[in-house]
């Protein structure tokens, strides 16, 4: 993101709570991030880390009840998306902010043709005529690399393969020239060779259309290949954030460090034994009052059990929510050296 | 008791040892019926002529994309299907065409760990009952002995003994997979088919389960067929790796050789498509992006199965189906780009060099 340019999206202390019979689940806790124009922000985390819920919260995709989004601010352009009404939000959703979901089979409607599903946002948001929408749909299908696009407009989702369906989903998300595209594990359900096709397509489209992308995934390999900046989530919080090269070269949060070590690779060194992160992710029945990684952290000490670490800034546009990175504490902690 | 009954740990891929599993010409075709009389009009050739051996103590990784037939292959080997054609010898016994009744006697030797730990555990049975079920079926142990064995198995897979009366829903995905592994171990099997055992788990939990499988292999001298689409995890766990595409094994090689220098164009494409968790490397690797999708196994292309997507396709590929070529170093590859270096057609002889290099790969 060029310095000084205002971010496209600015999320400030966003929290989301689900009210359930088992108690209140604090799925997102005080999340802050910005997205620059044309930037690709990778969001990494395991299941239940709050990465999808964060993104769904900010464009009002969570059913309420049980979800309660807020407090917090989601500044998009000159508006706060959490303050505008449902009607205005609907204009933003699918218009200026596009969404691609994980499973292309369940997110496409099986009883409508692909053509109708691509035309829907065009007619709704851009007020195109039927004819113009169909023409634009053909253009979009060609853009995402579906051969024989005009004929395939009349096909139903089940007539497409998994990779092709995901291309259709991307075409729908791109229909109204969004400023921001949120992609929630868009390649997780796909095979690696098809995933490689989709990743290449996304890179091409970004260059061509210049939109900003939020890419949610649990696959560090995917992130390494495409992201500009990365945000690591754990227990509904952002635990580390850095430019992609910095994060992989110099991870500072013990969770990020452990996560990077658990993943085997195909080209580099082969580890004799995989490093594991013992224990289980936290259950978020209360807002965090201490570090959420403390029970699994090899460096945890007494302070981690009683105070919540802030995101301490580090050199190189980097920050980590860990007391090991607190400049005020550094001299007193012997663990700093091995972190 | 567990230890006493377990077979002595086998030296991995010892030279001269007969293979524990020997699969020859395995075919598993599922008929397609159509029309008023439900006549058979075709067949889905899920597994279409597969040969391989697995030595005692070895882990063979079986990789490929969805629909390539790798899971069907694993299930067919355990005779969870009635196979169409071929021979399966496990521990010296031909089980390819045994009746299900005759098979029961051999079931304790071979077990399976399934992909989805949620779906493969009965939600109405508690952990103790689940792990105990194979003991009830196949052994004449007293109730007290079975209880003791269940607890030992829970220790072996790292489950807290106090959870024996809990039901599967009370466990996380990784713990459920441990229950499935304990159940597979209950009868002291020699051979376990692991069918995508980590695919449904989070990365940090995947490593725990893979380490557990490795520990158990060492402790009980187990032999694994490890089916996965995760090439990086297979590189970690397997001794040798077989790559499947559309019902056939296109390449089979010792792990190091396969990852260092993949020979088949499909293996090359597959390996280059794996995202590398290193931004410097990831942006440097030259990717082979395959065009199009996998053809239907009901109607495979003429000639080589991969000819519709192969970046190095030649005229001959559209005409003649390449037979596996046996290359030095225990490698085999089914591709017209390579010449067979062996004059013999005996497939067991062709596998011989494989043990020595496989052994080099695992010995410290």
Automatic annotation (TrEMBL), chain A:
<keyword id="KW-0067">ATP-binding</keyword>
<dbReference type="InterPro" id="IPR027417">
    <property type="entry name" value="P-loop_NTPase"/>
</dbReference>
<dbReference type="GO" id="GO:0015833">
    <property type="term" value="P:peptide transport"/>
</dbReference>
<dbReference type="InterPro" id="IPR003593">
    <property type="entry name" value="AAA+_ATPase"/>
</dbReference>
<protein>
    <submittedName>
        <fullName>ABC transporter ATP-binding protein</fullName>
    </submittedName>
</protein>
<keyword id="KW-0472">Membrane</keyword>
<dbReference type="GO" id="GO:0016887">
    <property type="term" value="F:ATP hydrolysis activity"/>
</dbReference>
<keyword id="KW-1003">Cell membrane</keyword>
<dbReference type="Pfam" id="PF00005">
    <property type="entry name" value="ABC_tran"/>
</dbReference>
<dbReference type="InterPro" id="IPR003439">
    <property type="entry name" value="ABC_transporter-like_ATP-bd"/>
</dbReference>
<keyword id="KW-0813">Transport</keyword>
<dbReference type="InterPro" id="IPR050388">
    <property type="entry name" value="ABC_Ni/Peptide_Import"/>
</dbReference>
<feature type="domain" description="ABC transporter">
    <location>
        <begin position="11"/>
        <end position="260"/>
    </location>
</feature>
<dbReference type="GO" id="GO:0005886">
    <property type="term" value="C:plasma membrane"/>
</dbReference>
<keyword id="KW-0547">Nucleotide-binding</keyword>
<dbReference type="InterPro" id="IPR017871">
    <property type="entry name" value="ABC_transporter-like_CS"/>
</dbReference>
<dbReference type="GO" id="GO:0055085">
    <property type="term" value="P:transmembrane transport"/>
</dbReference>
<comment type="similarity">
    <text>Belongs to the ABC transporter superfamily.</text>
</comment>
<dbReference type="GO" id="GO:0005524">
    <property type="term" value="F:ATP binding"/>
</dbReference>
<dbReference type="Pfam" id="PF08352">
    <property type="entry name" value="oligo_HPY"/>
</dbReference>
<dbReference type="InterPro" id="IPR013563">
    <property type="entry name" value="Oligopep_ABC_C"/>
</dbReference>
Automatic annotation (TrEMBL), chain B:
<dbReference type="InterPro" id="IPR003439">
    <property type="entry name" value="ABC_transporter-like_ATP-bd"/>
</dbReference>
<dbReference type="GO" id="GO:0016887">
    <property type="term" value="F:ATP hydrolysis activity"/>
</dbReference>
<feature type="domain" description="ABC transporter">
    <location>
        <begin position="32"/>
        <end position="271"/>
    </location>
</feature>
<dbReference type="GO" id="GO:0015833">
    <property type="term" value="P:peptide transport"/>
</dbReference>
<dbReference type="GO" id="GO:0005886">
    <property type="term" value="C:plasma membrane"/>
</dbReference>
<dbReference type="Pfam" id="PF00005">
    <property type="entry name" value="ABC_tran"/>
</dbReference>
<dbReference type="GO" id="GO:0055085">
    <property type="term" value="P:transmembrane transport"/>
</dbReference>
<keyword id="KW-0547">Nucleotide-binding</keyword>
<feature type="region of interest" description="Disordered">
    <location>
        <begin position="344"/>
        <end position="364"/>
    </location>
</feature>
<protein>
    <submittedName>
        <fullName>ATP-binding cassette domain-containing protein</fullName>
    </submittedName>
</protein>
<dbReference type="InterPro" id="IPR050319">
    <property type="entry name" value="ABC_transp_ATP-bind"/>
</dbReference>
<dbReference type="InterPro" id="IPR003593">
    <property type="entry name" value="AAA+_ATPase"/>
</dbReference>
<dbReference type="GO" id="GO:0005524">
    <property type="term" value="F:ATP binding"/>
</dbReference>
<dbReference type="Pfam" id="PF08352">
    <property type="entry name" value="oligo_HPY"/>
</dbReference>
<dbReference type="InterPro" id="IPR017871">
    <property type="entry name" value="ABC_transporter-like_CS"/>
</dbReference>
<keyword id="KW-0813">Transport</keyword>
<dbReference type="InterPro" id="IPR027417">
    <property type="entry name" value="P-loop_NTPase"/>
</dbReference>
<dbReference type="InterPro" id="IPR013563">
    <property type="entry name" value="Oligopep_ABC_C"/>
</dbReference>
<comment type="similarity">
    <text>Belongs to the ABC transporter superfamily.</text>
</comment>
<keyword id="KW-0067">ATP-binding</keyword>
